[in-house]
Structures are given as structure tokens and as C-alpha cells.
Amino acid sequence: MRIAVSGSIAHDHLMTFPGRFADQLVGDQLHTVSLSFLVDALEVRRGGVGANICYGMGQLGAHPILVGAAGADFDEYRAWLDRHGVDTASVRISEVLHTARFVCTTDADHNQIGSFYTGAMSEARLIELQTVADRVGGLDLVHIGADDPEAMLRHTEECRSRDIPFAADFSQQLARMEGEEIRTLTDGASYLFHNEYEKALVESKTGWSAEEVLARVGTRVTTLGARGVRVERAGEKPLEVGCPEELAKADPTGVGDAFRAGFLAGLAWGAPLERSAQVGCMVATLVIETVGTQEYTLSRGPFMERFTKAYGEDAAAEVREHLA
User: Fold this and answer.
1) How far apart are CA 122 and CA 211, in angstroms?
2) Which residues touch 32 (CB under 8 Å, ≥6 apart)?
3) Measuring CA to CA, which residue among 264, 153, 285 is closest to residue 219?
4) Which residues are catalytic?
5) Do 91 and 132 touch, CB atoms closer than 8 A?
6) Within its chain, how far is the Cα of 34 from the centroid?
7) In this structure, are strands 3-6 and 65-67 parallel, antiparallel, or unpaired?
8) CA end-to-end span of the chain, whole Å?
């Protein structure tokens, strides 16, 4: 199964604040906030939702195709992704803009405040999916993740017009989208990904009930934080999958991307939804134990040992055959 992942490609600047943001906020002065946090640590990492998802899929041997835009400073990043099983040949390189940048501060309670510079990401709207499909011999699914909003709309419309199944995943872009845009990006999706808050926001902005949303997509996947994930299909009983036990909670950045990487890898293998969700939760657990979105290692032995402990030998037997 050939899966293309469209989404942002970015460099992450991750900082750690030892206090609590809540202690610094004055309720009646929120309209004039002026704060500076003295941080303890700075990590400069590779990031962007498209690249993060592809990295995880590549680690699982799923051979993802990354679709996005980056700057001339992408060479080292490209080599990293190539080494980890990602097809980067469809990444557009801007002649004038730098690769996008995410600057984020995390407090002691794992709350986050971040800013995102789009840079070359704005040129993702110039990428045509048919060119990608022609190069690789066709596409079975296009995951449309957070990216330049115009690119997300173009990719969605192109998938519809060319009968390519697609997954809708608004993520960070949901806050700036209006109801009509969300309806356009959602209707007819084979998969819809979001967390609990985003689920409520989708329903509020579109005016659709939960049942109406479910009637318009094939499969609705809602991540539940530490509780795992809920997978829903119209006319079927919801499926809920819990998370494996964490060894530590180092950094929440990129956990959602990691879940998607595991879930999509499962689909690429032809695994059922429950198994795909379990793989997603296992990869997400590895990421929350690591600072950075692509700094975790996925070794077959330790991965399968923890997966077996969490989900049982029968589930592990189905997954083991797919791992390189």
C-alpha cells in the first residue's frame, strides 16, 4: 500500500520552563499579557507533522512518500529522512524561503506555548499530487496533515477529482479554519484524525453532530491522551485501545504524529484497525519518553517485547512479521 503524507516540514526549537504557566497568568490582565520565561534547556530538533509521521512510518518499514515544501537548508534533513526509509523525492525546495520553524516552550505540567513560522511551507500549494502518483506508480492513500491551508484544500480537491482515498488531519491548522473550509476538507475522507478537543471544535465549527460527521467519513480516529484512542465507524461499535505503560514522560511534542505514523504503517501492512491503533499507541509511547519528535529509536526486539506486554501474544504475532 503506497501512502503519501502531505504536511509541514520544520525545524523545532524546544525549550523547557521549570515553573508553571498558570502561576504567571493574572486573570484580569489577560488582555495585556507580556511575559518572558527564563528556560532551563533548548533542544534544536527536526520536526514538522509531515516529516514526523514519515520518520515513524519509515522506522516501521512502511516506505512513506513525503509531500511538502522546504528551503535550501533542507539538505541535511533530507539525508536524515532518506536514511530512515522515507521517500523525499517529492519535496519541493523553495528558491527564496527557509524551511518552516516551530518554537515551543513546555512547562512543568507539560503545557505548551508555541509559535510557527511558515517559510517555505507556503509553497506546498504548488505541489500536484498527480505528479507524485505518476512517479511512484499510483497512490493508495494520501494523508493530508497540517500544512499551508491552500495546499490542504488543493490536495483534498485533487484527491476527490482523481478518486484517491485521503485522510483528513487538520491538527494545528484547525484553530484558524472556518466551518466551510473544515466541511470541504472533511467530507468524503476515508479517515478523520483529531484529539478530543479538536473533535468538539470540528463539530462546533461545521455545525455537524457527531453522527453527521461519522456519516461523512469512513473512519473517525480520536486520540484520548494517556487513555489511548477511540476508532469509530458508522453502524459499528466504537473501538477503544489503551496505551502501553510509560517508562517516563519526557516531552509531549510529536506524540500525535507518532500515533499517526504507527496507525498508517498498520494500514500499509494491511493490518486491521485495532492492530493499527495498537501500533500507533506503542510508537506514541516511545515518543513521549524522548525529547524531540524524531529522536526515538525503534528496535525490533524491545518494541515487540513492550507491545506483547501491552496487547498480548496474538496481537504481537500479527505485527512481528511486518517489522524489519
Assistant:
1) 34
2) none
3) 264
4) 257
5) no
6) 31
7) parallel
8) 16
Tell me what pLDDT residue 294 has.
Answer: 92
Query: Which residues contact residue 207 at a Cβ distance below 8 angstroms, ignoring those fewer than 6 apart?
Result: 179
> pTM score, two decimals?
0.89
Convert the pLDDT of each residue in 76-127 to its tens digit. Answer: 999 999 999 999 999 999 999 999 998 889 999 988 898 888 999 999 999 9
Q: Which residues pair with 103 in a beta bridge?
A: 13, 115
Distance CA 272, CA 185 (A): 25
Q: Which three cell numbers stand for residue 46?
A: 527536526
Place of cell 518572558: 36
Helix axes 300-311, 273-288, angle to 10 degrees: 120
- Rounded distance between C-alpha atoms, residue 182 and residue 250, angstroms: 33
How far is residue 315's CA from residue 282's CA, in Å, rounded to a whole number? 12
Which amino acid is it at 234? A
Q: CA–CA separation, 241 vs 279, rounded Å?
A: 10
Sign (positive/negative) of CA torsion 178, 65, 126, 258?
A: positive
Instruction: Please give the single-letter amino acid code of residue 149.
Output: P
